[in-house]
Design brief:
about 160 residues, 2 domains, alpha+beta, elongated, three-stranded antiparallel sheet, two-stranded antiparallel sheet
């Protein structure tokens, strides 16, 4: 047997070394940043998921007949998010109506009272007043609390989007 020497090999990006039966092979696993779609058109794959029908039902699409990414198919919702998105749409309409009748739309700066899903507790609740980037928020804690109690079922359904 010959002398054992250390050698340094620079592995190209996207390749992973695999040792199999004493042989080292470089296997291309792809470059995750290069393969990440940069636009809708770059997605270029078959879509499947759900969409909201004209009567507010949730229909699955793409399982039997895959859809290609086109301008017509931008309304396909990832599977499992149809009901949460429909609930959020309803909540946004209810929020806007509440803002109108109670004059509780928060100013761009100032104190706000958002309704959030707290992952640590598992509850939908009023959030901290410094949480500004939430879709369901009010300028009054009382109105936010009433909204939370009136629409708790919808808020629960949309929790992962809050």
């Amino acid at each position: 047997m010959g002398e054992i020497k250390d050698i340094n090999i620079e592995i190209p990006e996207g390749f992973v070394p695999e040792l199999n039966n004493g042989k080292l092979t470089l296997v291309y696993k792809g470059n995750k940043f290069y393969e990440m779609p940069k636009s809708w058109e770059d997605l270029n794959q078959h879509l499947s998921g759900e969409y909201i029908t004209s009567d507010s039902g949730i229909e699955e699409v793409g399982e039997l007949i895959p859809l290609i990414t086109t301008k017509r198919n931008k309304n396909i919702i990832p599977k499992g998010l149809g009901k949460p998105i429909l609930s959020l749409i309803q909540l946004l309409q209810l929020r806007n109506a509440t803002w109108k009748v109670t004059d509780s739309k928060p100013a761009p700066v100032g104190v706000i009272f958002p309704i959030i899903y707290d992952l640590s507790s598992g509850f939908v609740r009023l959030g901290d007043q410094n949480c500004v980037n939430h879709p369901i928020k009010f300028s009054s804690a009382d109105i936010a609390s009433r909204f939370l109690s009136y629409h708790s079922d919808l808020l629960w359904e949309a929790r992962e989007l809050l």
